[in-house]
Amino acid sequence: MKNEREAADLWVEERRFWEAGCACICGADEAGAGPLAGPVYAAAVILPPERVIHGLNDSKKLTAHRREELFDQICAEARAYAVVSVDERTIDAIDILNARIRAMDEAIRQLAQKPDFALIDGNRDHGSRCSISMPHALLVKGDSRSANIAAASVLAKVSRDRYMERLAEEYPKYGFEQHKGYGTKQHYAALDCYGPCQAHRRSFLVKWEARRSECEKVDR
To answer: Of all residues in the chain, what percent carry a pLDDT higher than 90?
Structure first.
């Protein structure tokens, strides 16, 4: 009974905007803003109104196994969903904020059923180059407050994790299957040993490269 109430509470924000006249609402979220390597992913989801998906929550609060289970259920039950990625080279070119916004905006645009309003996780809806074009509202910690955003967070996180696991087969020295590109001790140790690969975001390695240059000067 407790889980059912918690899941139902995720519809509070949607109800607020339905009452304001929004007929079809999607949620959008991204995953992978902070890693040193790999793309940033975003998803947009339209769930059937008031649909209770047990255990649905912010993807970061779920185990990997539970996220995988929810991924399949969300894809099966959603009225529409879309997942988009923005690659490392683009992140370096336009910066991570613009890349995040571009990914979420594109995911919303790719929905087969067109919403008339979007709930966006976080407190930013534009960068210097990209913005959310759909009428929308920002929800801080929206993945714990909105069913549609929570569903989008799961799709984005699982999709990115799966990509990083595939990337690990191409670059086995870096341990991408374990840390998913985040700046762990293991990851920095691999960078120190092998240097960056094509999957790394060079704009995220400025401090590491500066430290490496200083170490090389000392060694000389």
So the answer is: 87
Tokens, residue 100: 């995040």
The number of beta carbons lying within 10 Å of the beta carbon of residue 103 is 30
Quote the CA–CA distance of 94 and 164 in Å, as a whole number: 22
Backbone angles phi, psi at 100, to 5 degrees: -60, -50
Give CA–CA dist 9/3, Å, rounded: 10
Q: Show the beta-strand stretches assigned E in the chain.
A: 25-31, 40-46, 80-86, 117-121, 136-139
Q: What is the pLDDT of residues 4-36, one digit of tens each?
A: 444 448 999 999 999 999 999 999 999 999 999
Contact by Cβ (8 Å): 51, 147? yes
Query: From its phi and psi, is residue 44 left (phi > 0), alpha (psi between -120 and 50) or beta?
Result: beta
137: helix, strand or coil: strand
Helix axes 147-170, 64-77, angle to 10 degrees: 120
> 86: closest CA among 156, 169, 144, 153?
156
Q: Do the beta carbons of residue 122 and residue 137 sit within 8 Å?
A: no
pTM (two decimals): 0.92
Per the CB < 8 A criterion, the answer to whether 26 and 148 are in contact is: yes
- 112-160 pLDDT, tens digit per residue, is 999 999 999 999 999 999 999 999 999 999 999 999 999 999 999 999 9
